[in-house]
Design goal:
The protein contains seven helices and two strands; from the N terminus they run αααααββαα. The protein is mainly alpha-helical.
Length: 162
């Protein structure tokens, strides 16, 4: 099976114009498509390098933003609570997460990322973050406004499907 990034962007443009006649391909749209393709590959590659499943990696990403209950984590991952529980068990066994009693409701459990889990996720993502920071720092304030407007429009277009 060939990598999607090996395909000619013009092939995708031709396919889209058949369905959306007003579509006009451009280098920015081709580049955006390449970005979405690469972004879809990143979690799989990072998880592989870290020896994690993609669900474990996504769990660490969600938990890095704050503790979550197991059911909330299942919803965020788009899996069953049983599957989420297995992911949590594996993260706890690796020392990357802990189950704790919810501070406001002792009957509930919350899952918290540990320092080990935070380091594991960041260690593998640091080169990407450094490159993104360099690219962002190279923009002028006016360029940043244009890029942000473009990206927000792309996000809105993609969210229209969800």
């Amino acid at each position: 099976m060939s990598d999607i990034t090996d395909h000619d962007p013009q092939d995708a443009t031709r396919a889209v114009t058949e369905l959306v006649p007003a579509w006009t391909g451009s280098s920015t749209l081709d580049t955006l498509q390449e970005l979405t393709d690469v972004a879809a590959q990143v979690p799989h590659e990072v998880a592989r390098r870290a020896g994690l499943s993609t669900s474990e990696l996504h769990s660490l990403r969600h938990l890095a933003m704050g503790s979550m209950g197991p059911v909330d984590l299942a919803r965020a991952l788009g899996v069953t609570s049983a599957a989420s529980s297995q992911v949590i068990d594996r993260l706890v066994a690796r020392g990357h997460a802990e189950r704790r009693r919810h501070p406001g409701d002792g009957r509930r459990t919350e899952v918290v990322i540990t320092e080990s889990g935070r380091r594991e996720a960041v260690r593998h993502l640091a080169p990407m973050f450094e490159g993104l920071a360099r690219t962002d720092a190279s923009l002028t304030p006016d360029e940043r406004v244009v890029v942000e407007r473009y990206l927000r429009g792309a996000i809105a277009a993609m969210r229209s499907l969800t």
